[in-house]
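We modelled the chain as a single entity of 235 amino acids. Its sequence is:
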Amino acid sequence: MTELPDSARFARVTDWVFDLDNTLYPHHTNLFSQIDVRMTAYVSELLQLPREDARKLQKELYQQYGTTLAGLMARHNIDPDDFLNKVHDIDYSWLAPDPALGEAIKALPGRKFIFTNGNRDHAERAARQLGILDHFDDIFDIVAAELMPKPAQQTYDKFLALHRIAGPNAAMFEDLARNLIVPKALGMQTVLIVPHNFEPTFSEIWERDPAYDDAVDFVTDDLAGFLRTIAPAQS
């Protein structure tokens, strides 16, 4: 794992793939906390559980199935559209427009994609609030993935086939190291986005990915700055 950008490593990249939550917008905005609260409320209402029990189950589902949605579908056969609409009914004004990030993404040559375990509507609203939506060629969401979340191999395969992306010509930016295992194996440059002034622990044990460090080529807490550093190799 290397923390300093190396522009030469990105010289052949023509496809730039970005996760959304806690990647394109910074962790400290805490936008995902709204979704997290709504997921807990959904589980509580669905199963008539006290909030603490619902949250414990929610995290159990996340650990076992990759997303709360996948777990609820497997165990309780819920309507995925109902779940996605309810948990993403949040206040996007928490996100401040990020013109510096927009310029850095725009300067990258080739195509740019958002690849998220959320739904398209959530990705569009968040990216629009950030002022970066127009810089992306497409959004590959959990619906396009047929509700199979990252880090499932078949989800990456579906994304790459749809857009005819070759691994060695791509780079992927993620806030979860486990979601970089497949991209690394496919030959992509992998970049882990961590919170600003990051220390090597996460606030909750279930978020930690210490076993997947080998999947990470670079680490940064400043996505826009990282992109500006590697962009000159593309000119």
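As a brief sanity check on the tokenised model: Residues 200-206 have pLDDT under 50 and may be disordered. The chain has nine helices and six strands.
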